[in-house]
Amino acid sequence: MKYNQLHINDNPRLAIASMKHRDNMATTRMANTLLTKAGTT
Q1: Over the stretch 3-24, which tens digit does the pLDDT of each residue have?
Q2: Which of 2, 5, 13, 22 is 20 to 30 A from 38, alpha carbon to alpha carbon?
Q3: How far is CA 25 from CA 8, 15, 16, 28, 31, in A?
Q4: Contact, 35 vs 28, CB < 8 A?
């Protein structure tokens, strides 16, 4: 945990990339959920 924190502080570009990646994952999950709900209704 501490290592990751330091690593991100040393490399802000990496932090931004990982944040964007997390956002993309969340968006994809949300889209899949909506598609599944639409498909089953």
Answers
A1: 555 555 667 787 788 888 889 9
A2: 22
A3: 19, 15, 14, 5, 10
A4: no
